[in-house]
Amino acid sequence: MTVVEDRRSRRTRGALRDALVSLVLERGYAAVTVEDIVAAADVGRATFYTHFKDKEALYDHVVSSVLQDLKGRLDEVLAPEDAGFTGEPVAEVFRHASEQPDAYRMILRGEGDGRGLRAFEDAWSATAFETFTARVKANAVRPRVDLQVLARAWVGEQMAVLLWWLDAPEPRPATDQVVETLVELSRRGRFWATGFDPDGR
C-alpha cells in the first residue's frame, strides 16, 4: 500500500468512525444502519465493506481504538509500584476522554448491547488489578479487601463519574477538580468523604 493509499484509508476509517459515533448518540445503536453510516460519512457502500464486514465490526473498531490508545497513554504515566497513588492515571483518562468525548459517551452509555462498556470495564479493571497487586508486593502490605473486588469497585466509580462529567452541561466542572476529588476519595474513603472522623464520629 502506498503512502497516499494509507492516508486515504485512515481518512475513510475516520469518517466512518465519526459517522457511527454521531448517529449512535443521536438515534441509538439499534436504529443505525450501514446505509445511514455511509450517507453520513459520504462514502459508498462498497468502500464501507472494503474496510468493515458490518456495523458491528465498525463499532468494535471504535472501541478497540479507544482502548488501545488509552492503554498506551496509561503505560506512560503509571508510577513505580512504591510511589503510592499519584492520581495521574485517573487524570490521564479524563484528558483522553476530553479529546474524544462522543466516543466515550457511546461506550460508557452501553450502546452496542453493552459490549463496548464491558470491554472497557474489563480492560481498565485488569490494569487496576495489576497495579494494585504490584503496589501491595512492593510495599509489603496485606490487603484488607480482595484486590479483584477492589479493582472492579474502583473502576466502576471512575466510569460513573467520567460519564457524569462528560454529560454535565457547560461549563462542566474542571477536570483537575473532579480528579482531585476522586484521588482524595481513593486515599481516604467514603467514610471520610461524608464528613465522619476516623474515630467514627
UniProtKB/TrEMBL annotation:
Domain of life: Bacteria
DNA-binding region ranges: 33-52
Annotated keywords: DNA-binding
Protein's UniProt keywords contain DNA-binding: yes
Domain HTH tetR-type as annotated: residue spans: 10-70
Record flagged with keyword Repeat: no
GO MF annotations in UniProt: DNA binding
Protein name in UniProt: TetR family transcriptional regulator
Organism: Nocardioides luteus
